[in-house]
Every structure is written in C-alpha cells, then in structure tokens.
Batch of 4 targets.
Target 1
Amino acid sequence: MPEFVTIPALLNLHKIDRALAEAEQGLLNVTRDQKTVEVSMAQLKAELSRLQANSMQLQANIAAEELETAVKREHIEKMRTALNTTKTNKDYSAILVQISAEKAIVSDLEKNTFKMMEEKEALEKSIAALNEKIKGVAYHLSSVQAASAEKVRDLTTRIDAMRLSRTEAATRVPQEALKQYERIGQRHPGEVMAPVEYEEDDMENIACGGCFMNLSIEDVNLLRGRDEIRRCRSCGRILYVAQNPAAGERTAAN
C-alpha cells in the first residue's frame, strides 16, 4: 500500500484555510456592521444639517417679512397723518386708496409670516426629534465600536496565528500539488477540497461533496489506492475519501 502524503497534507492545509476563511469573513462582518451604523449616523447628521439650514433660512425670511410689515405700517400711519393736511377730496380719496392698498399688502405679509412661523415650529419639532434619534444612534454606535474593537482584536490575533500555521502546513505539501491547490483556491476560497460521498453498500450512488455531481467507483478506488490529486470533473475541487483504507479493504472492483 502506498504511503499517503499528498492528500493528508492537503487536508490539513484545507482545514486551516476553511477556519481562516471563516475568521476573515467574521472580521469582514464585524467591520461591515460598524460601517452600517456609521453610515446611518452620517445620513442622520446630514439630514439634521439640512433641516437646520432650512430653519435658519425661514428665520431670515420671517425677519425680512416682519421688517417689511413694520415699514408698511409706519408708512400707513404717515399717510393717515397726511389725511389731515389734504386740501381737496381728490387728494383725500387718493390717500385712502393708497392706505387700503398698503393695508392689503400688510395683511398678505402677516399671513405669509404666520405661515412661515408655523413651518418653522414644525421644523423645530422635527429637528428636536432628529436630535433625539441621533443621540440613540450615537449610543448604539459607541456600543458597536467598543464591541467591534474587541472582536477585531480577537479575530486579528486568530487570523495572524492561522496564517502562520498555514505557512507551515503549506511546506508539507508537495510543490506541484500545492500549485494546483492554490490555483483552485482562487475559484473556491476556503472550499478547495470536497469529500467523495458514498455508502459502502451502495457504490452505484457516488457524488462530489462540493457540487453533488455523480462520480464513478473508479474515483473512489484511485483515491484509495494512489497518493495523487484527483479532481471533480464538474466543479474542479480536489477530491478525497474520509479515510484511506488498507489495501485489503479496497473494493473488489479495483
């Protein structure tokens, strides 16, 4: 019976790679979760800035309207005073018409000012509610950042250790086999190898554990009898059997 070196060495490397891929995905998930909350916070702050800018603009518009209203009222009072100095009915009527027109303008200004004040009041309520929401998100973000920092440290330490283990494990794999393994790993990160799935009492149904496509009994026999790489013809993964049995345990079809 041949000495099995290649497949056991690859399986050891594969075990490390799967754990490494899981840890790296975990690290990605942690940073992604924190990023999601940070993006939400940035969006809320942008919305707050927009509302505050609208509020400031409304306040400026209200002030301008109030100033114009005051000027119009002052002008109306002056015209009322002028009524006492008119000498003809025509002049008196002309001033009354002008006063009426100015009063209509003042009325419109007051209505518009009142409407803007209502808008500003509603806007201030929205700003207050948004500030409360930002406080809640800020608290959540600080919690996420604290938890993330601890998880990142833990995962980074584990990943660094696994990468060292991987480097060592890779030295035990024959060079040609390692080249194939690394090449397949670009297509199936962390899933380079797949078990051959079958039952000893049902050798008619043999499948790749990676893509579940059918395999032949020849695949099983060759993997049991030779220390070489055999790949799934469908997905390209490196195949292996759960154990390499002794020569006497090979199938009769071999």
Target 2
Amino acid sequence: MNKSRLEAFSDGVLAIIITIMVLEIKVPHGNELSDLHPLIPIVLSYVLSFIYVGIYWNNHHHMMQTVKNINGAILWANLHLLFWLSLIPFATAWNGENHFSNATMMVYGFVLLMAGIAYFILQNIIIKLQGNDSLLKKAIGKDFKGKSSPIFYLIAIIFANFLPIISGIIYVLVALMWLVPDKRIEKIINHQ
C-alpha cells in the first residue's frame, strides 16, 4: 500500500486540530490591553499544545520517511494516534479556561500520555513490518526520549492532584526535550 494517503490524511487532521485550538481563543470585549489579561492562561495553554502538535507532526513526518510500505495495522495505529491528538484541543481549552486546575492538568497529562503511547505503538508496528534492520529501528536506537516521556507524564499526572504547577513544568520540560531537533532519522536517511 502507498503511504501518501496516510501522510496527507494525517497532515489534514493535524491542521484541523491546530485550527480548532486557535478558534478557542475568543476576542475580548473591549479595546484596552488590560482586556487581554483574562486570556493569558488560554494563550499559554494554546502555545504549549501548539508546540506538542508541531512536535508530533514533525516526528510523524520523519518517521514516515523511513516507511516504504504500509498495511492495515499501520493505518489503524495511525488512526489511534490521531484519535488521541484530536483530544488535545478539548484538553487545551478546558485547561486554559480553568487556569490549570488540578483536574484539567490531570486530563491534559492523560491525553499527552495516551498520544505518546499511541505514537510508540505506531512506531513499533512500522518496525515490525519493516523488519529488525529497518531504517526506523536503526534511527531510534534505544529511544530514551520515547521511553522516558510516558514516565514523565505519569509523574505529572500524579503531581496534578496536589501541585498542578509542577505538572505544568514537567509538560513544558518534556516538550523542550522533544523540541530539540532530533537528527537520528535524517542521518540514517541521508546515509542510505
């Protein structure tokens, strides 16, 4: 099966996710800069979620560069990932509207955790199809970031019960960890 439809569909879903998130930022009633103050938590939540969606888009793009063929399992695993990513606008809006409360930070972390697990599943299904000498397997190596992110999300979810600010810091740190350009896949592809 050709992978171009999967990539085009995924890109479209991610574009819609970002559009939905930005539409949640309502224009304030008033024309003073102080009228923007109530939007600060909403905008901060949006910025972090935009970065997360961008990270997934970037990594998904790189991962798909290693794939020659796809099968039904990859299609379903990709849909599984897109399902969890499609919940980011809800978690983002709820989090921003409620000023990063305990419950909203917990749900936000749960969505990030499940998206991370879904990405891990997709990655492993691709490796299984491509074989142990696949480009993707060579590129990810021991995959410290991929394996440690769910642990950080779980810690953040626990902290959300009593110190949601710590959860927020952890979510930002994980995003920063992934924001640093990951050249593993590019190096493998360019080497081939």
Target 3
Amino acid sequence: MSRFKRQRNRQVPGLNLASMPDLIFTVLFFFMIVTHMRDVDPKVRYQVPQGTELEKEVNKAGLVYVFIGKPVDAQGHQLSDETRIQMGNRYITVDEIGKEIAKERDHMSDEDRQRLTVCIRADRNTEMGIINDVKQALRRAGALNINYSATLQSNKTRR
C-alpha cells in the first residue's frame, strides 16, 4: 500500500489575466459602434414647436440640419435677441444658404444627393418671414425636400 501525503503549505494559484486585454478591446469596440457622436453643436437656442400629426424621419442619410434661433455661447447663455441661422458649425445669412447646400452636396454620395432633405429646427417664436426666406433660398438651391422638427403635443395642451 502507498501512502498519501498531505501538503500543509498549500497556496491559492494566481488569477490568470491573459484574456483581459481581449475583453477590454471587445467592450471598447462595442461602445464605439453603438455610440452616436453629434456632428454639429447648435449655437442657437431653439425650442421646437408642438404638433399633433407628426412622422418620424427614418432616413438619416442625406439629412442637412438648419438651426434658426437666438445665438448662445458655449454655456447656453443668450448672446443677443437677433435671430440667427446656423448650418454646420457656423452662422450664415439667407444669401449663403445656396453655397452651403452645394458644399453639403459635394460631400455626399450620389444616392444621398438624390435623397437630400433639409431639416429645419426653428425656435417656436421665430418670425415666419425668416422661415419663409430660408425656404425660398432652399428652393433656389434645389433643395426641395424640407422637414420641420417638432415635438408631439400632449393631450393636456390641446384645445
């Protein structure tokens, strides 16, 4: 018969961390794919109007955003009472809208050029004359598909 010896100085083995970098990079890639980064930071304050018959825009490709409202600084403080128009990351005038639309078209694929849609995000207190001027400039630039951003009106505020 053989004898079994007991080991009295037994230690717990160390934790194997060889697969830890693989796990970290997998999580990193997951968040890089899922996270949507904002391309344009609004430099104007706008509170979109409320509506009752709204449709959600499904096609994100070919969208160009036009912000109309009061200018604000990086902290959100209103700079003046003058209504400003923003495309991309800069302020423009109504006369420059055609040039900016042409620049946006140059950066798009042929498929997206055909589906070019301008999304107007205007403050609810913006004068209709300014919005009409923007619409006329977009028409001259050949951007005929226009969306207006709005929020759904709740039952409490409907009359």
Target 4
Amino acid sequence: MGVKAIGLLSGGLDSTLAVKMMMDQGIEVLAVNFNTGFCLSDTQEKIRKTPGEVYRHDALKAGEALGVAVEMVDIYDQYWDVLTKPKHGYGSAFNPCLDCRSKMLSLAGEMRVKRGAEFVFTGEVMGQRPMSQYRAALRMLEKESNLEGLLLRPLSAKLLEPSIPEQKGWVDREKLLDIVGRGRKVQMRIAEELGITDYPSPAGGCCSLVDKSFAERLRDLFEHRPGGMDERLEREEIFLLKTGRHFRISPTAKLIVARDEGECRFLHFHRRIGWRLEAEDLSGPVALLLGEPTEQDLLMGAAITASYGKGKLDTLVPIRLQKGDEDRLLEVAPMAREESILLGVHA
C-alpha cells in the first residue's frame, strides 16, 4: 500500500503547490479544507452571485484541477473560542492566526489517525506570515497540534529539520523546496512549470479577520450587542459584516448601505431582521437598518440612504422603509456626504 497524507488545501497558490508536489512523489493525498465561517469565498458565494451564476470554493476548484478529492469541514462552532479567547492573542486586526492554525493542525492530526494516514502537510512558507510562519512559531504549532515530526512543509522543508516522512524516505527531501519570505515569484515560476495556471491572487488570503475594516466592524458589533463576545454570532450576521458600507447611527441602531448590485440583492431580502430602505422611484442602493432604531434613527438612516442614490442633490427624496408587514414612506433631505462619513464604521 502507498503512503497516505492529509494535506491542508485552501485553494491558494502555496497549498495547491504543496498538494501537487506530494502527488508527484506518489503520496496518496487526502485534501481537507477547514471552514471557520470567516472565509472571503463564502462572501462571493452568497452575496456576489448573480442569477444563474455558479461559484465554487477555491479549494474545490484546486482539487478538481489536481484530480484530488477535497473534504470540506465546517468548524465554525469549534472556532468560537479560538476567535474570542485566543491564547496567543491577535495580529494587527482581529486575527488569532496562531490559535487558528493550531486548531486546524490539531484537527488534521486527528483525521490522520482516523484515516490511517502517515503524516500531515501544509503550504506554509517560512517568513511569509509575520504572526504564524516564523521558525519558532512553526515549531510551536507542530508541538501544540501533537504532530511533532509528522508535519511537513514542502515549500520550506529544506530550511527546517528533516521530518519523519523525510527520514523514513516516504518523501524525497531533495525534491522539496527552500522558499522563504513574502514574495511569490518562485511559487509562480514553479506553478508555471507544473502546469498550474488557475489560482487566486498569490498575495491574497481567504480570511476576513485579517482585514482591518472588517475587524473594526466586528469590534463595533461586539461593543453594541448585549452578549458582547460571549454570544456567538449567527452566520447571517457575519455575512452582513462583509457587506456594504456600515454606519453606526446610535448605540442601538446601525445602517448598512449596499455598494453594488450583488449587495443590493442580498440586502433586499432582509426586512425580516431589520428595516429595508430604498429610494422611491429613484435609482439608488438598498440599505438595511438593524437594531432598535428610534424615530430619529429612522430619519437619519433614510437621509444617509438618500445621499448614495440619484437624488443625492435633490432637496427632498422619498425613501420607502419596510420591515415585516410594516411599510412607511419618508421624505428626507439627503445627508451631506461629509456628515455620513463621520458615522462610518470603515464605510
């Protein structure tokens, strides 16, 4: 029987290369993608999709191109403590990168045992991520996840101590790489040599939590909800955090204004959880007012909505407000853009 390995596959360039390298060495790869609920691909799937258009997760597209099955594992429920109580703290935004990586590697280690695989591998590159991919962090993650000696990083393996798969000859160390740093030129060249052409932006990432704008919105939400960080967010709340321009109107009310057609479609169906606002007989965005708005909050939300539509220079703009079975029409003066920007939560 051949050697089996669990490979973490995000669908990005690095993890795709790692899978391809292992397959080329005759390793039977069991690819897995762990979904925390904060992946940007989810946003594209749920919000940006136009009627008749089909999006597939980057990991599934990479797996199909490589000819390897990908197991998609949702870990949102397990991830909440990682997000709100990270042992190793946060990065520059709301990203608990070390704890996140440790959790995924631990789960991959459990899968290794259950599936009868010999080792686990990833597309990590030394020095690429400042919080989680320096030498000491790589060693620490290996130890925390109970994968000492059984965790292979093919793209930087020659810069690290030989792992058990290398020592036992399951993989040829000479065919592994010594990539270091944040650049992607080496990976792009190797991808071209291996015939890998379809992959996301090499310098990108799939996690919303590293985005400072998203982080500010998330902190704002925690600060203004009764349960704070102790109350788990619904998936829909996370999607809404990724959508539109956000305005904190009052401690009990927040407005989200769509930025494009896809976001307008997405917000259009949310009047069951908040007030849907839209200009009457004028082209403009759909907006959603969440929380427990006062009458003054409704007026302000309508004024901001009016300022982003075709009537932004008009004296008065009719704004239709709907929530559940309630239906109102307000005529408001569009708020000056400079005023609305002051309310923006990274709008």
